[in-house]
Design a protein that fits this description.
The chain is α/β, with parallel strands linked by helices. Helices cover 49% and strands 12% of the residues. It has 8 helices and 4 strands. Strand 1, helix 2 (39-54) and strand 2 form a beta-alpha-beta unit. Helix 3 runs parallel beside helix 4 (115-127) and helix 7 (174-181) crosses helix 8. The radius of gyration is 18 Å and the shape is globular. Mean pLDDT is 86; it is low at 201-205.
């Protein structure tokens, strides 16, 4: 479910039942003479497009096409927000999404220089009682299905990480972890069984 293609009432209704938002973060920078400036934005955009085609139940915010790439400023077309600038933009975006009901955030990152800003923004969200995860697409690429992007597995890994974090924050108390995640206790228990997670947050695979 693309946010920019939805009406405000559709987004309002989404947040009545869900609290997850996926945000792509890219970059506009020099990528040599052979690649376009938007390479690091195109990669997360493509993954998000495939995700939308396979399961349109997730709210996908517009991809941010600018990142932290100060070292390449000077090459015509490169536009950098810098580490602090990107952090400020992410903080503003997530603050407003939180006001609408978002509590879980997945940042699909396309550029290595964005990692520090994304980590800072994620720590702020986690400190505020939300759950945030950063997925660097090139890190998960070896785990993807050679015949295509296995997005269901990717989303499952994101969810496992969020549940583990909630269990850790709650000291292993499932009832508290369900509150952190904004889920019914029974729903969380079902997900834990599905993924083989124990109350300590470990997997039994």
């Amino acid at each position: 479910m693309y946010m920019e293609r939805s009406t405000w009432t559709q987004v309002r209704d989404y947040f009545k039942e869900h609290d997850l938002v996926i945000i792509g973060v890219g970059s506009t920078e020099c990528h040599g003479r052979h690649n376009p400036l938007g390479t690091d934005t195109m990669a997360p955009d493509k993954i998000l497009e495939l995700l939308e085609q396979r399961d349109g139940t997730y709210l996908v915010a517009p991809t941010l096409p600018y990142g932290a790439t100060d070292d390449l400023v000077g090459y015509p077309g490169t536009v950098s927000l810098g580490v602090q600038g990107l952090y400020d933009v992410l903080s503003s975006i997530t603050r407003q999404l939180r006001a609408y009901g978002a509590r879980r955030f997945v940042f699909l990152n396309g550029h290595g220089g964005n990692v520090k800003s994304l980590s800072m923004a994620s720590m702020d969200l986690n400190d505020a009682g939300c759950l945030a995860a950063v997925v660097n697409w090139w890190r998960v690429a070896p785990q993807l299905d050679p015949a295509g992007v296995n997005l269901k597995d990717m989303v499952a890994q994101m969810e496992i990480g969020m549940i583990r974090q909630a269990l850790s924050q709650s000291g292993g108390v499932v009832a508290k972890a369900s509150e952190i995640l904004g889920l019914r206790r029974t729903t969380l228990v079902e997900k834990m069984k599905k993924y083989g997670l124990t109350a300590a947050g470990s997997q039994e695979f």
